[in-house]
Amino acid sequence: MAGTAHPSVEEHLGRIARDGFTIVEDAIEPDLLDSLHDDLLRLERELRVRPARNDFEGRHTVRIYNLLVQGKLYERIPVHERVLPIVEGVLDPGCLVSSLSSIAILPGETAQPIHADDQVMPLPKPHVATVCNSMWALTDFTEENGATRVVPGSHLADDSPVYGRHYDSIPAEMKRGSVLVWHGSLWHGGGANRTDRRRVGVAMNYCAGWVRQQENQQLGIPREIARGFSPRLRELVGWGVYRMLIGHVNKRSPVELLDGPGAGADGRLVWDLDTGSKRLRDRG
């Protein structure tokens, strides 16, 4: 509604804590929406992308992976000001891009098996958030066209869903331009498309800075492309050091591999600080 204030980051985080997900309405600028929709169709044609042959990715679903190598347009997604602060609240500011891909569910697709994005991680549940993912709606998401289905509150469960088993779920319906953000332990899955039009979304997935990324960003993104990223996007894809410790190269920030010695932070790591060294000693 015109004139209505958007929910605050804290309100979105409260919804995620309670339900496992939230919807950020009218998050994506119209020009970005149109550009993404058109460019994904171009990539689909030029890359000759076809549906996979398994039930998880979908036999009538087109997915394009590693979008950050496909042009400057996609660099706007991971750092979006309406979404990233929520993700940082679920994880922390040291979070990383885990993967960036598009998902177009075509007419005739069946529902994806209910799953949790972190269920391959060998950690007892419930646990601290290791993953926080989002789905950008480039078309309306409805129950009929395959809106993501969610099991509210399931992020607090003490286990993960059994693959292929039926679970009661609800569609996360949202208008074009909205973004669904969810805790990585939430049980969810893509819906069935019973219409004659495709449902198009962008899956912008993040993980904690101490978790291995789903797509290997440092090998998947050529250095010459990463050099052109903004400083924040560089950090998000892994060209940085998490909490002054995780991800260093010979006690230096990996960003020096892009820009040369002396680039980036001051070069100190956690054991160079008196408080950090004491903390490490106490843990040992």
Question: What is the topology?
Answer:
Elements: H1 9-19, E1 21-24, H2 30-46, E2 61-64, H3 84-90, E3 96-105, E4 131-137, E5 149-150, E6 170-171, E7 179-183, E8 188-189, E9 199-207, H4 217-220, H5 223-226, H6 231-237, H7 256-259, H8 274-283
Antiparallel strand pairs: 1-7, 2-3, 3-9, 4-7, 4-9, 5-6, 5-8
Low-confidence stretches: none
The dominant shape is globular
How much of the polypeptide forms β-strand, as a percent range?
A: 15-25%
Can you write the helix and strand succession as a string?
HEHEHEEEEEEEHHHHH
- The strand line-up of the biggest sheet is 1-7-4-9-3-2
Oligomer: single chain
- Average pLDDT reading: 93
Radius of gyration computed on alpha carbons: 20 Å
Treating each run of at least 4 consecutive H or I residues as one helix, how many helices? 8
Descriptive notes:
With 284 residues, the protein is α+β, with helices and mostly antiparallel strands. It has 2 domains: 9-218, q2cbj1_9rhob like domain (Jelly Rolls), CATH 2.60.120.620; 219-283, no CATH class. Helices cover 23% and strands 16% of the residues. The strands form 2 sheets. The protein has a 6-stranded antiparallel β-sheet with strand order 1-7-4-9-3-2. A 3-stranded antiparallel β-sheet has the order 6-5-8, with no helix packed on it. Helix 1 (9-19) crosses helix 3. The longest helix has 17 residues, at 30-46. The mean pLDDT is 93.
Defining traits:
single chain, 284 residues, alpha+beta, Jelly Rolls, six-stranded antiparallel beta sheet, three-stranded antiparallel beta sheet, 8 helices, globular
